Amino acid sequence: MRARTHVATTHTTHQTDPMTETTESETIAYDVVVLGAGPVGENVADRTRAAGLTTAIVESELVGGECSYWACMPSKALLRPVIAQADARRLPGLAAAARAPLDTPAVLERRDNFTSHWQDDGQVDWVEGIGADLYRGHGRLAGPRTVTVTVSDGSVTTLTARHAVVVCTGTRAQLPDLPGLAEVRPWTSREATSADSAPGRLLVVGGGVVATEMAAAWGALGSRVTLLVRGKGLLSRMEPFAGELVAEALTEAGVDVRTGVSVASVTREDGTVVALTRTGERFEADEILFATGRIPGTDDIGLDTVGLEPGSWLEVDDTLRVTGTDWLYAAGDVNHRALLTHQGKYQARIAGAAIGARAAGTPLLDGPWGPHAATADHEAVPQVVFTDPEAAAVGLSLAEAEEAGHRVRAVDVEFSSVAGAALYGDGYKGRARMVVDLEDEILRGVTFVGPGVGELIHSATIAVAGHVPISRLWHVVPSYPTLSEVWLRLLEAYRDN
């Protein structure tokens, strides 16, 4: 089974060590050098160019990064038909037609279109359009404010930065240290989002976002999926009911969800993957996906040349500047604040603005909610899990709020009390929770679970980030009959109890 993890010839990752013999090096000076041309690096470059700073951006694979080719875009392209079909099955008049299997080749073709068939010409044009210079090759720090770019023929270009180097190299899948794993050739998130056909049987190891989304996608596209979860349930970073409702729906859709299962070893026998658990259970499949975490893409970018630990997460302040430096920044996954594309792009905008202000010698407004401070990283991080039902959350869960020392109260309502939910589809099932700070009567967190709730989360994000008091929320009138009427039900439940 082929998975499109390759990179076109002109985009090959170059792992040549710049310390080995090379051709003569060229040195070019910029105001800012960005390592990594994914969405985060692109946004840093956009903001520093807008500030009038000359900017170089270095990429070893495809411009556009993980999100464009192996994560957000292909995974959601796979899931959108799955969710649309599930919605149609809830509606008399469509239900019968929606029982037909999905046209898997058509779904995969649409997925391929969203990844531009793993070609990055359009994104390269965008980088050139903002006036940034793109360098293809392996970028590596070579001391303060210095980056070397090595290409396949061994030639090296040295870039120096007058003001800042920004690390935006993201993360990669973490694989467990299991006997036999290398020989099995397991899937990671890359293979799961780029495979060119559905495996007959798929084992998914993990209980987080990637595991649940890919179980939902490939289960609907024709695979017989078994989900092996080490913990007690799914989506452990959300409110408990989120994982419970998603697990229930996956089971109803035909996914075999097993919790409390820990894989001890894997082998491939005559083409069949065999996974043995610590209790001796045996599971067989055609492919196995490990969705068991991420590690920072910092192991070979020269951190040791500036006194930092290779392979480490980079600790930053709220301007995204790396602790202990005055020139090195880290935005996106590499700082481990929130491994989400939209949050990384937010950080990139903050970092670019802060670099521009420091370069110009203008006042740095880095207090809470200032233009040079990534305050939302601490208080208002939103996320949507695109399963059926969707799970969406922002801010703190009840447990997190209590652990942080807030005096809070959780308010829960079922979507069965919302007219818009009944209209959305027969048998609509979902739940909403808001976590209210009883001292200030503001929201510390909000969670929605149910079909279509991903489009509700921005309203919750505004309420949490804006510290909108309950008294003001009563004047935010939801349109009838929409899913957003759940806000009125939540406020009523808070008032009446």
Main attributes of the structure:
497 residues; alpha/beta; FAD/NAD(P)-binding domain; Enolase-like, domain 1; 3 domains; 7-stranded mixed β-sheet; 5-stranded antiparallel β-sheet; 30% helix; FAD; flavoprotein; FAD/NAD-binding_dom
List the helices and strands and how they pair.
Layout: E1 26-35, H1 39-50, E2 55-59, H2 65-70, H3 72-89, H4 104-114, H5 121-129, E3 133-136, E4 138-141, E5 146-150, E6 156-167, E7 171-173, H6 181-184, H7 189-194, E8 201-205, H8 209-220, E9 224-229, H9 240-252, E10 256-259, E11 263-269, E12 272-277, E13 282-285, E14 287-290, E15 294-296, E16 328-330, H10 341-360, H11 376-379, E17 382-385, E18 390-395, H12 398-403, E19 408-414, H13 419-424, E20 431-437, E21 442-450, H14 457-465, H15 470-473, H16 486-496
InterPro entries: Class-I_Pyr_Nuc-Dis_Oxidored (IPR050151), FAD/NAD-bd_sf (IPR036188), FAD/NAD-binding_dom (IPR023753), FAD/NAD-linked_Rdtase_dimer_sf (IPR016156), Pyr_nuc-diS_OxRdtase (IPR001100), Pyr_nucl-diS_OxRdtase_dimer (IPR004099)
Pfam families: Pyr_redox_2, Pyr_redox_dim
Family: Belongs to the class-I pyridine nucleotide-disulfide oxidoreductase family.
